[in-house]
Amino acid sequence: MDHSTTRRTILAGATGTLAAAVLAACSGGDRPARPTSATPTRSTAAPTPTPTPTPTPTPTPTPTRPALTRVPLPGGTITGLPEGTPGIAWTVDDGASPEVVEAYARFAAETGTRLTFFVNGDRPSWTEHADLLRPLVDSGQVQLGNHTWSHPALTKLGDQAIQDELMRNHAFLERTFGVDARPYFRPPFGYHDARVDRAAAAVGYSTPLLWYGTLADSGDITAEQIVGFAEQWFQPAHIVIGHANFPGTIGALPRLHELLEERGLATWTLDDVFAH
């Protein structure tokens, strides 16, 4: 605005109404200022355009899964699903990386993939993303299992220490997600024996849950390597173990979903398959 012109107008005795109009022009937001004149004229402001509503994203539909009859939980260690199960149990351990835990949660929400997480409660990622995970857990799409509090080799611990590891993690899962993870526990590194199993069963963790196929991503490998392992192990009735530890997993997730679709494999939680 030409402030000298404004001053001349005011000094010339412009009415309060005209002064207000000039001041309003100075606060016109992103519109370019109009050139002033000794005798400004009132103009009608253009109507504020009605904003175009942002379209609501359409949720990805949950894939249709074949009917499945639950079977009684067998005794002892489980390494696979019942023969003929038309899909896999995709299990995910540890949670060393908050970014991978978040990616898995968003992947599950977007694709409808059913997962079982075996949680170490001392990993901050499970607390950091509890709000993101909780609706999936509440709906039953994601199941939580006990992987001990801090991931020790249970065969090197005494009975009381084994139970302390399991029950500290048990309390964390109840407090954070409102679930009782029994009877399933996954012994870290797969290390367990009859003594470990007895100690765990004494506090309700009667079913050691192992696997029949791995994505081999407990360490830092590439997305391409992870997909290669999935091509080998994504087969009907397999329990497949993955990890939420390193970024290669994030890049692999879309391709793992495509592989399941190409092979017509559903995903199941343990509670989808076994009645206990």
Q: Name the average pLDDT.
A: 84
Q: Total strand count, please?
A: 9
Low-confidence stretches: 1-63
How does the helix and strand content classify structurally?
alpha/beta
Largest sheet descriptor: 5 strands, parallel
State the end-to-end CA separation: 79 Å
Number of helices in the DSSP assignment: 10
Can you give the helix content as a percent range? 25-40%
User: What share of the residues does DSSP label as strand, in percent?
Assistant: 5-15%
Shape: globular
Compressed to H and E, one letter per element, the order equals: HHEEHEHHEHEHEHEHEHE
Radius of gyration: 30 Å
Plain-language structure description:
This protein has 276 residues and is α/β, with parallel strands linked by helices. It has helices at 3-11, 16-26, 98-111, 124-128, 130-139, 159-177, 194-201, 223-233, 248-263, 270-273, and strands at residues 71-72, 87-94, 115-119, 142-146, 184-185, 207-208, 239-243, 266-267, 274-275. The strands form three sheets. Strands 2, 3, 4, 7 and 8 form a five-stranded parallel beta sheet that branches. The protein is globular. Mean pLDDT is 84; it is low at 1-63.
Key attributes of the depicted protein:
single chain, alpha/beta, five-stranded parallel sheet, two-stranded parallel ribbon, 10 helices, globular
